[in-house]
What does this fold into?
Amino acid sequence: MTKKVYVYRSFERFWHWLQAILIIFLAFSGFEIHGLYKFFGFEEAVLYHNIAAYLFIILIVFAIFWHFTTGEWRQYIPTYKNLSKQMQYYLWGMFKNEPHPTKKTVLRKLNPMQKLTYFGLKVLVIPVMVTSGLLYMLFRYPQGNEIQYLNIASLEIIALVHTIAAFFLISFVIVHLYLITTGETLTSNLKAMLTGYEELEDDDESETKKLEENK
Ligand code: HEM
It folds into this structure.
C-alpha cells in the first residue's frame, strides 16, 4: 500500500531549485571566465558570476538557518548501514529490477549514498568553492580590506582549487540528473521535488502524523 506523503517542504524546494539554477549559471559563467568559450564576454561573465555568487552565499546562509531550526540537518549524517547494499543497487540491482534496498520515509528521506554524497558537498565541496571564490574576489578586487598576504602564485592556486571544485560540482550535477530517474518511477523523484508530495509505502503512522504537523 502506498500513500501520498508531503516529503519536501516549500523552503526546501525553493532552496533546491534556486541552488540548482545558481550552480548551473555559476558553472556556465565560470567556464567562460576560464576561457572555454565566449558568450557574455569576459567582463560581463565576471560581473554575472559575482552577482550569482553573492546570491548563492545568501541562499546558503538561509539554508543553514533552515536546516538547524527544523532539525533537518540530521538527515545528512552519513551512515555505513546499508551503504554497500545501496551501491550494489545502483551498480546492478536496479538494472535487474530489484527492489530499493532502503525505504524512503519523511524522517529518512535520503538513502545512505545520498547522505554521504550530500554531506560531502555540504562540508567539503561547497565550502571550498565559496572560500576559494571569495579569496579570488577579494584578491582581484581589493577595496580597503584587501588580503595582503596573497601573492600572484597563490592566486593561481586559488584559481586551480576553484576550478577543480567546479569540476566536482558539475560531475555531481550530471550523476544527480541521472539518479533522479531511478526512483520508484522515472519521474517520481522529480515530481516530489516540484510538488513536495511523493507516493511512499504507508506503514508508519507516527511519521505521517509528524508530517501533517509540519505542513
Ligand atoms: C559563492 C560561490 C562562488 C564565488 C564567490 C565565486 C567567485 C569567483 C571569482 C571571483 C572568479 C574569478 C573571476 C575573475 O577572473 O575575475 C571565479 C572564477 C570561476 N568560477 Fe567561481 N565563484 C563561486 C562559485 C562557483 C561555482 C558554483 C562554479 C561552478 C560550478 C564556479 C566556477 C568558476 C570557474 C570555472 C571559474 C574560472 C576559474 C579560472 O579559470 O580561473 N564558481 N569565481
The mean pLDDT is 89. The first strand starts at residue 2 and ends at 6. Residues 23, 26-27, 30-31, 33-34, 46, 49, 53, 56-57, 129-130, 133-134, 136-137, 140, 159, 162-163, 166, 169-170 surround protoporphyrin IX containing FE (CB under 6 Å). The first helix runs from residue 10 to 33.
